[in-house]
Specification:
This protein is elongated. Helices cover about 40% and strands about 25% of the residues. A hairpin with a 3-residue loop joins β1 and β2. With about 300 residues, the protein is α/β, with parallel strands linked by helices.
Length: about 300
Amino acid sequence: MNYTLQQLRYLVAVAEHGSVSAAARSLYVSQPGVSAAVSYLEGIFGIQCFVRHHAKGVSLTVAGQSLVAAARDVLIQAEELHHRANELNHTVRGKISLGCFPTLSPFFLPRILETLRAAYPDINLQIHDGDTESLLRWLRDGTIEAALMYDPSCDSALYATHRLTSLRSYALLPGSHPLASQSAVSADDLVSEPLILLNYAPITDYQLAVFRETEKEPNIRHEVSNFELVRGLVAAGKGYAILNLRPALDHTYDGRTVKCLPITGETQSASVILASMHSLKPSGKTTALIDTCNSVMQKFDPELCRWVA
């Protein structure tokens, strides 16, 4: 069954203008061409769309009303497809607002910005830094169009999520700690040691999940919300930490050394996602951002918690 969008346009025009001649004039085409298109569509669909009235134009049949409505939908979808294609090509431009979770932004945003600018120089990325609650609120009120964040297990009917990577927890120890000479540590090795907790939901949940199978509660010594402060306190010998992102150098701001060790056994991985609102159709800019994030994440090793390229 073959028909063209042009033939559907002719059909809709006849319905809207009430006559073949008026439709032809509105489209700047010949009357026989419009009449032939309508007859062809009636033939292949087996539906009489119009009742012809001599010298008085045409009127839609009941079946014709339904078919014309369906034809309008097809034409609208075709137009949307055309616009989508235009948005996805090299002319993608304009501002897009991206929210980002504070501990993720230093690791991922610089590379995302660099890659996005190279591929889409006319996109202006605006950054909003905030916690999970703020990011979800900004998505709802339209402040941001997408959010780079940990998966908050939120309402899937409200938020669309695109998974980018998963981060596995590791133990951060002072370089001089007795356990630092081991190739790996277990939750049982750590549970009685003083813990420096990165108190930032939902990261806190992933840290404490490490001890789920032990019979003891972790010995929380300090709770702070700054990633580098956690590392500094660990390097100063104040305890150990459970983290899932690892800077390129195993040194803190004051030059002290820390040691990163894998944790044996089953540990819960933290999913990093790009979230948006389900109610908003992804624009070309949003699609470009998703493609860029996917490209960037291919160079990140979630097991090592580091960039590999």
